[in-house]
Automatic annotation (TrEMBL):
Belongs to the short-chain dehydrogenases/reductases (SDR) family. This is NAD(P)-dependent dehydrogenase, short-chain alcohol dehydrogenase family. Keywords: Oxidoreductase. The lineage of its organism: Bacteria, Pseudomonadati, Bacteroidota, Cytophagia, Cytophagales. Gene3D superfamilies: NAD(P)-binding Rossmann-like Domain (3.40.50.720). It comes from Pontibacter chinhatensis. It holds the Pfam family adh_short_C2. GO terms for molecular function: oxidoreductase activity, acting on CH-OH group of donors. Residues 20-37 have a biased composition (Basic and acidic residues).
Length: 289
C-alpha cells in the first residue's frame, strides 16, 4: 500500500479486460486508508451496507467505517478475492463484516441483500450506494441499447432498489450516502451514458433528502474526480491510464483514502445538519453546485 507521501503523480500503463475490475491486479495498489488515520468512534455501534464495497472507494469507505466503530456489510458482483480481502480488513479493525455477492441491477437481489445484512449485523443505520460501471464511447451512435440499459440499471436503478429496501429498516438518525461524480456537473464527451446516470444520482440525492427530511433520515452524496480505482484500468486503454488524473489542478489522481473521510463525515453526527448536499473530492476542479 502506498503512503500519502509516496503517491505517484503518474501511473504505469495497464488495463484490465472486464469490469468492475480487480484491485489486486493494479499497480500500484490503491491506498485504502492513510497511514496514521485514527478512528474516534464517530460510527460506534452503527451498522452499514456498502455497494461496490470490495475495492476502490467502496473498500476505503468500508475500512474507514470499521475503524470508526461500525459493523459493515459489503455488496459486490463477482470479485471474490477483493471482497475476501476487504472482509479481512474490516475484521482486523475488530468489527463484524459480511460479504454479499450479486447483481445490484436485480431488485430481488437488493431486497435479499438488505434483509441478510439486517439479520447478520442486527440492524441498518447507514446505506452507501457506491457501485457503478462505465463504458467509454466517443460517438453517441456507438452506445448500444444494451449498454445504455445496463449502465442505467447498475448505476441508478440499483439505488432505487437498494434504498427502497433499506428504508424499511432505517429510522431517524440514519443516513444514506450516494456516489455521484464530477461528470454529473461538467459532463463527459466519452462517457455520455455514465455521466447521465451520475446526473440522475445527484437529482435523486436532492429529491430523496427532501422526501425523508421529516423522518430525520439524511441523504447526501460525494462527487469524486479522478480516483485510482479498479474501474479505471477496466475502462480505459493503457495509454489513457498513464495520463489519468493529470488534467486537474493537483496534477495527479486521488487515492480512495482521500475520498472515504467524506463518507465518514456525512454518515456521522458531524454531518447532522447536512442533507441534500454533495461534497466534491476532485483534485481542485471547479464545478457548479
Amino acid at each position: 500500500m502506498k503512503t500519502m507521501a509516496n503517491k505517484p503523480t503518474k501511473l504505469p500503463a495497464q488495463e484490465q479486460e472486464q469490469q468492475p475490475g480487480k484491485e489486486h491486479e493494479m499497480t500500484p495498489q490503491p491506498e485504502y486508508i492513510r497511514k496514521g488515520y485514527k478512528g474516534s468512534d464517530k460510527l460506534k455501534g452503527k451498522k452499514a451496507l456498502i455497494t461496490g464495497g470490495d475495492s476502490g472507494i467502496g473498500r476505503a469507505v468500508a475500512v474507514h467505517f470499521a475503524r470508526e466503530g461500525a459493523d459493515v456489510a459489503i455488496v459486490y458482483l463477482n470479485e471474490d478475492k477483493d471482497a475476501k480481502d476487504t472482509l479481512k480488513l474490516i475484521e482486523a479493525e475488530g468489527r463484524k463484516g459480511l460479504i454479499l455477492s450479486g447483481d445490484i441491477g436485480d431488485e430481488k437481489f437488493c431486497r435479499d441483500a438488505v434483509q441478510r445484512a439486517v439479520k447478520e449485523l442486527g440492524g441498518l443505520d447507514i446505506l452507501v450506494n457506491n457501485a457503478a460501471e462505465q463504458h467509454e464511447q466517443s460517438d453517441l451512435k456507438d452506445i448500444s441499447k444494451d449498454q445504455l440499459q445496463r449502465t442505467f440499471q447498475t448505476n441508478i436503478f440499483s439505488m432505487f432498489y437498494m434504498t427502497k429496501a433499506a428504508l424499511e429498516h432505517m429510522k431517524g438518525g440514519s443516513a444514506v450516502v450516494n456516489s455521484t461524480s464530477v461528470t454529473s456537473y461538467r459532463g463527459s464527451d466519452h462517457l455520455m451514458d455514465y455521466a447521465s446516470t451520475k446526473g440522475a444520482i445527484t437529482a435523486f440525492t436532492r429529491s430523496l433528502s427532501a422526501n425523508l427530511a421529516e423522518k430525520k433520515i439524511r441523504v447526501n452524496a460525494v462527487a469524486p474526480g479522478p480516483i485510482w480505482t479498479p474501474l479505471i484500468p477496466a475502462s480505459f486503454d493503457a495509454e489513457k491510464v498513464k495520463e489519468f488524473g493529470q488534467n486537474v489542478p493537483l496534477k495527479r489522481p486521488g487515492q480512495p483514502s482521500e475520498v472515504a473521510p467524506a463518507y465518514v463525515f456525512l454518515a456521522s453526527e458531524d454531518g447532522s445538519y447536512i442533507t441534500g448536499q454533495v461534497i466534491h473530492v476532485n483534485g481542485g476542479e471547479q464545478v457548479g453546485s
